[in-house]
């Protein structure tokens, strides 16, 4: 079951607790997260955030699709990743200098839960167990995205490596 199966009329705390990224989190933490969250809707081509802006939030996607884009040398957006329902967008709020490294743009009508990262950082500083829980979950997302990027890079360059006589182990 995806979070998109849940009505947007459900209380926000329920939606937060049911999102796969947060499933299994202590009820007390779900309440804290819900207290610094709000529901957001994005139209096609609306930006969640832009590269270079201050990173003070993250989103849990409930329905729709978001593309993460980086700017090439000509200033054109290049799609790095597509993120759909039940996934997370944005972890730069966790790491100084708290600046977005990509654009995030809705590729389809998108419903998400917006979290105030600056408030969450304060909660995490007061309760390291909460910080550890969130960091473990964010780290898992980072590993998955890095592995996916690695696989795409290898797939893109596999033909070039064979042609260049690259050594194999």
Which short descriptors sum up this protein?
single chain; 169 residues; alpha+beta; Jelly Rolls; four-stranded antiparallel beta sheet; 4 helices; 37% helix
What does this entry show, briefly?
Helix content is 37%, strand content 26%.
CATH classification class: Mainly Beta
CATH architecture: Sandwich
Q: Which structural class do you get from the secondary structure elements?
A: alpha+beta
Largest beta-sheet details: 4 strands, antiparallel
The number of distinct β-strands equals 8
Order of helices and strands: HHEEEEEEEEHH
Uncertain runs with pLDDT below 50, 5 residues or more?
A: 163-169
Can you describe what's shown?
- By secondary structure, the chain is of the alpha+beta class.
- It has a single domain, classed as Jelly Rolls (Sandwich), CATH 2.60.120.10.
- The chain contains 4 helices and 8 strands; from the N terminus they run ααββββββββαα.
- A 4-stranded antiparallel sheet has the order 1-8-3-6.
- The longest helix is centred in the C-terminal third of the chain and has 36 residues.
What does the secondary structure layout of this molecule look like, with pairings?
Layout: H1 12-18, H2 27-35, E1 37-42, E2 47-49, E3 57-63, E4 65-71, E5 77-84, E6 88-89, E7 103-106, E8 110-116, H3 117-126, H4 128-163
Antiparallel strand pairs: 1-8, 2-7, 3-6, 3-8, 4-5, 4-7
